[in-house]
Specification:
By secondary structure, the chain is of the alpha+beta class. It has helices at 7-34, 39-52, 70-80, 85-88, 104-115, 234-241, 245-270, 282-310, 316-341, 352-359, 369-381, and strands at residues 120-123, 139-143, 146-157, 164-176, 179-190, 196-200, 212-223, 227-228, 272-273, 276-277. Helix 1 (7-34) runs parallel beside helix 3 (70-80), helix 3 (70-80) packs antiparallel against helix 8 (282-310) and helix 7 (245-270) runs parallel beside helix 9.
């Protein structure tokens, strides 16, 4: 791995960071107070990203994307991590899983998503089956050449803006020596389909304005043409195209940690106590030293995982390590920064309390810290027969 970045990569960083500072930061206070992204602001951000040439930059040039590799895209996500997730959502990174579209699906879903004409949302999580994908109860049964879907999904991010949904549904059960094993199929579901409803979700303390929604299916009829990939092939689609979503979380955690750290560093240099900046006191100075060391470590762990993907090297354990370490690092950095600010850190005069609240969810979604530890341990122990 080359530790230096190319001129093109440096351009990506400077371009995206400048965009976030100019187009995202000014709207953050409004979104934080209202918990809503006004439609006109959302459309303005999206159009400016399209004009900039960065919309759907995670897609290959063959379908109209910018064709960034994993490392380049990780740099994009790292810079976007500095801004409000409710607003950077409109920077536009459709789910890579849409590359599994075939035939008419490409014209109906893939290409409009890449052009920014339609927005998607991914739906896997259920009330009784969080990290246990095969434990899902939302199911579909055959009815002639159609499927009848019943059940619900929750914690669905971006659903209020989505024109269509990529939904994972149980379509059968296999008996195995380890017990029943559900078969999963992926469906493309348009908003407004009969028997399908999108409802408001829960009020979360993290990422105000970046809402979660509940999806309800009540005898929702879907034709075979809505199957993404193969029937009962949902896990194959998932493993092929959703492999690196944990890397995105890690990268965004690094970007957010750096922004938070900048606040803490400047405050430690400016805030006077007992006739000197508080950063000169060992208790604060050592926190500053620990924070930047952890941020740099998480950054390189994340970038090296992206580099491994680009080299077609095994990366599952490395990505899990990056997601685990970066999200837990973010929790420590936001907490330590708040401690440096003292009581003012809890006031909404500064964004520190927001960073602190927002950091909490990163250790839960896209695989909890416990799931990441399981992946890492399994990867290490399996070759030894354990």
């Amino acid at each position: 791995m080359q530790f230096g970045l190319t001129d093109e990569q440096e351009m990506i960083i400077s371009t995206v960071r400048a965009f976030v500072e100019k187009e995202i930061y000014p709207h953050e206070a409004l979104v934080e107070k209202s918990a809503v992204v006004p439609r006109e602001i959302a459309q303005e951000i999206k159009q400016k990203v399209i004009d900039l040439g960065f919309y759907a930059c995670n897609f290959p040039q063959s379908v109209g994307g910018a064709g960034l590799n994993h490392l380049d895209f990780t740099l994009v996500e790292r810079e976007l991590g500095r801004g409000s997730m409710a607003l950077t959502h409109f920077f536009g990174r459709p789910q890579n899983i849409l590359m599994a579209c075939e035939g008419e699906q490409r014209d109906r879903y893939l290409l409009p998503a890449v052009r920014g004409e339609r927005m998607d949302a991914l739906a896997m999580t259920e009330p009784g089956a969080g990290s246990d994908i095969r434990g899902m109860n939302c199911s579909a049964r055959r009815d002639g050449s159609d499927w009848i879907v019943n059940g619900s999904k929750h914690f669905i991010s971006g659903a209020e803006h989505a024109d269509f949904f990529i939904v994972f549904v149980a379509t059968g059960v296999d008996e195995t020596p380890k017990g029943p094993k559900k078969r999963i199929t992926t469906f493309l579901v348009d908003r407004g389909t009969a028997g399908f409803e999108v409802r408001d979700g829960y009020n979360s303390v993290s990422h105000r304005g970046y809402k979660n929604c509940i999806l309800e299916f009540d005898d929702c009829r879907l034709p075979d043409a809505q199957v993404l990939g193969e029937v009962d092939g949902g896990f194959a689609v998932m493993n092929t195209w959703l492999y690196a979503t944990r890397l995105t979380v890690a990268a965004m955690a690094v970007g957010r940690a750096r922004r938070c750290f900048d606040y803490g560093l400047n405050y430690a240099a400016e805030r006077q106590q007992f006739g000197q900046p508080i950063g000169k006191f060992q208790g604060v100075g050592f926190q500053i030293a620990d924070m930047i060391t952890e941020i740099d470590a998480a950054d390189w762990l994340t970038l090296s995982s992206a580099w491994r993907l680009d080299q077609n090297l095994p990366s599952n354990r490395e990505i899990a390590s990056a997601k685990l370490y970066a999200t837990e690092m973010l929790a420590r950095v936001t907490d330590q920064t708040l401690q440096i600010y003292g009581g003012m850190g809890l006031m909404d005069d500064f964004p520190i309390e927001r960073f602190w609240r927002d950091a909490r969810v990163e250790r839960i979604w896209d695989g909890t810290s416990e799931i990441q530890r399981h992946i890492i341990a399994r990867d290490l122990l399996r070759p030894l027969g354990a």
